[in-house]
């Protein structure tokens, strides 16, 4: 943790100007780890391709390189400002709790003292969401995995990822973190849209139930939504707003909306950038009062080494595979982050 001695200017502080104060900073981040599988064949899920004998030839050597690559990224998210790696990190596309434990034993992360919250989802590919947290700053007091029930046109179950909710104390202050990986756009955006609407409705239901229990709940919703900030699932169902002046008690603030309008993204497909990875906050976190933790700013972590440097995909995220060809990169998404500030006495 770093105590910042800074000139802080928050865009919504009308008429206040610059203030020279000490602040404690905490970093909340989200990262799609792009198929972080171990090399073992699990007979209960379709992971045969992610084994040494499978079509991806997923060997122990490649697995270890993937872990080290991801560890490098996590160790650097927000470090230029906070002086350290994220305090809270939501992740998706992980096969088991063990792969997260393996990640945390890498040299770059071993000393960070991260802990894991993870539940197995019924997803057909065997991928789940999870939450990593530093026990020096966050104490979880509750956690639950919520099942998203989807059915195809024939009435058969379409198995997908659960939504994870973790409540706890961030330096003694109550927070709730919701980690998501909504259904993909497989089959086309229009055809798959209803599944993401249902996922958004489940997220909203979870959020509303927390607020009924705790009317002052501070909630951070993060994830790979497979939708952009302007899509209906985000704008209409979650009632996200890109401007602080538009917020009301039922909406959520989405700092990624302005980034999206500027053409920024976290993944690229057919020379078009999408910003599927987002962090949304309840309005009580977007406040002038920094006596408790409040939102400062958000960003996309995309240093040059995370970009493909040559070829047809130059500039895209430097990923582990393109098709079945091994590239040895990091992931097909850039991580996103948000800083929370609290004024020090």
Walk me through what this model shows.
The chain is α+β, with helices and mostly antiparallel strands and 345 residues long. Helix content is 20%, strand content 32%. The protein is built from 7 helices and 18 strands. It has helices spanning 60-76, 79-82, 97-104, 107-110, 189-213, 232-237, 256-261; strands at 3-8, 19-36, 88-94, 114-118, 128-134, 138-146, 163-170, 173-181, 219-224, 240-241, 252-253, 267-269, 272-274, 277-281, 294-300, 321-322, 325-326, 336-343. Strands 1, 2, 3, 4, 5, 15 and 18 form a 7-stranded mixed β-sheet that branches. The protein has a 5-stranded mixed β-sheet with strand order 6-7-8-9-14, covered by helices on one side. Helix 5 links the parallel strand 8 and strand 9 (219-224). It is globular. It starts with a strand and ends with a strand.
């Amino acid at each position: 943790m770093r105590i910042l001695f800074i000139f802080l200017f928050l865009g919504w502080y009308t008429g206040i100007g610059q203030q020279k104060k000490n602040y404690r900073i905490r970093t909340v981040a989200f990262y799609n780890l792009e198929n972080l599988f171990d090399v073992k064949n699990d007979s209960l899920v379709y992971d045969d391709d992610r084994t040494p004998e499978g079509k991806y030839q997923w060997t122990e050597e490649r697995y270890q390189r993937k872990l080290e690559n991801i560890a490098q990224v996590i160790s650097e998210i927000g470090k230029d400002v906070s002086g350290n790696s994220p305090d809270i990190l939501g992740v998706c596309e992980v096969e088991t709790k063990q792969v997260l434990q393996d990640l945390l034993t890498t040299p770059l992360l071993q000393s960070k003292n991260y802990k894991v919250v993870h539940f197995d989802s019924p997803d057909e590919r065997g991928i789940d969401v999870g939450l990593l947290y530093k026990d020096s700053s966050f104490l979880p007091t509750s956690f639950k995995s919520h099942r998203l029930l989807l059915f195809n046109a024939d009435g058969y179950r379409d198995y997908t990822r659960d939504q994870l909710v973790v409540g706890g104390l961030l330096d003694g202050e109550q927070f709730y973190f919701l980690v998501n990986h909504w259904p993909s756009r497989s089959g086309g955006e229009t055809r798959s849209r209803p599944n993401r609407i249902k996922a958004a409705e489940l997220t909203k239901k979870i959020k509303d139930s927390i607020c009924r229990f705790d009317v002052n709940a501070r909630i951070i919703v993060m994830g790979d939504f497979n939708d952009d900030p302007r899509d209906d699932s985000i704008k209409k169902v979650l009632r996200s707003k890109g401007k602080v002046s538009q917020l009301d008690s039922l909406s959520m603030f989405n700092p990624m909306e302005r980034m999206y309008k500027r053409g920024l993204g976290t993944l690229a497909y057919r020379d078009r950038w999408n910003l599927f990875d987002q962090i949304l906050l309840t309005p009580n976190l977007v406040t002038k009062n920094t006596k408790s933790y409040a939102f400062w700013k958000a960003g996309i972590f995309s240093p040059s080494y995370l970009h493909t440097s040559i070829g047809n995909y130059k500039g895209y995220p430097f990923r582990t595979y393109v098709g079945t060809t091994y590239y040895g990169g990091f992931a097909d998404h850039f991580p996103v982050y948000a800083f929370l500030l609290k004024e020090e006495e």
